[in-house]
């Protein structure tokens, strides 16, 4: 060992510096240096706490991004549905008589232009039947 005769405080300071330097995330490394830990017993829990906070922040950011993406998808679906509803309202059923002139056909004499209740032949035939029934 190179520092076997070094005082304990020096060994502790070197170990703490080595630990901080070995940290991969620069923001954690900077925050620990700013906290001025006296030894490894202060540096390690601080590093663990900062790492946990970073992971929680990243997960929160992912959740927020996921919620925003879901909200965007919902908005797209809502827009599509709105367009389809508008399209269906435009294609809504309109009675045929509005599109074509009315064609009335009598079911009794089969001539166009009137209905059975207004048919002259039907009324005449109905009167003849009444006269036959009363006259017999």
Report on the architecture of this protein:
By secondary structure, the chain is mainly α. The protein has two domains: 8-90, DNA breaking-rejoining enzymes fold; 96-135, no CATH class. The chain is built from five helices and no strands. The protein has helices at residues 8-22, 26-35, 40-90, 96-99, 120-135. Helix 2 crosses helix 3. The mean pLDDT is 84. Residues 64-91 form a coiled coil. Keywords: Coiled coil, Metal-binding, Zinc, Zinc-finger. InterPro entries: Znf_CCHC, Znf_CCHC_sf.
Helical segment count: 5
Tell me about the largest β-sheet.
none
Name the CATH architecture of the largest domain. Answer: Orthogonal Bundle
Distance between the termini: 143 Å
List the main descriptive attributes of the protein structure presented here.
single chain, 136 residues, mainly alpha, DNA breaking-rejoining enzymes fold, 5 helices
